[in-house]
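Dear colleague,

Following up on yesterday's call, I've attached the two folding results inline so they're easy to grep. Please treat them as preliminary; we haven't cross-checked anything against experimental data yet. The first protein's sequence and structure tokens come first.
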Amino acid sequence: MENNLGFPEKFQLLHKSLQLYFNKELKDSEISGGSVFYFLLLNKENMTQAELTKHSQRDKAHTNRVITHLINKGYVSYVENESVKNKKLSLTEKGSTFAKNCKQLFKDYICKLTSGIDKKDLEATSKVLEQLANNAKKMIGKSEDIYV
């Protein structure tokens, strides 16, 4: 299909617009847009750094830089009484407050992005994107996350 050749550019545009949106909205904070997904993940449950890397689909070095920054700024801390090998990270009170902000930012972004699109079209698009993601994982030989 000739029209599918525009997929990479459209995916890149969506990814970039999300980054730029978060960076713009967070410009007055000490947190960059690249940290938002870590807040969203840790807001759901405490995780090890390896689990954060897996679920964020970022490389280990990136996750390490972000987590170190978030710990130094007081947004994240290690859970007490965990074994050193599998030490879990959790949001501090400051981090939990910021995570609520991030959740709202994400909702606002999606609302603006999907404005004027019929609900049925959005549901169909979601299903197609899920299948595309599954196919991509199969193509690269991974059954789960691509950065693990």
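Below is the second protein, in the same order (sequence, then structure):
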Amino acid sequence: MTNPVNYFDWVSRRAKCSPGVMFEALDVALKQDVESVQRMLQERHNSKLVFQHARVGNAVVVTRERMDAANPGTDTVQFSLTSAGITVQRDNTMRFVIVQSLNTEGTCKMNVDGQELEIWQVCHKALDGLFFGD
């Protein structure tokens, strides 16, 4: 069988657009983000914060440890792969769920609350407060 003009094999593309594939890509981005924030802290000679990335099975945890004697503590953002998508929790409180979808251009995208996001936007949404705020 020959391919009709402008045929797009959406079935194959959609099959590759799975929660597992998106989770792997997100894991790589999260690790890079943690490395970036650690470099920034080293450049600023800030030893009161330590960030870590850890992968355990179907979960990735980004941890912030405050080494300040006046305000010690640990905060986490956890990304967990489920059959429905990827859940994001901050300190054991559900923040949002990421689901994958094939957009009108045939690109696999992450969706949060009906909004199509790039991987960096998902990382920003999940980690901005941990890295720069509360």
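For the second protein, one point worth flagging: The mean pLDDT is 91.

Best wishes,
A.L.
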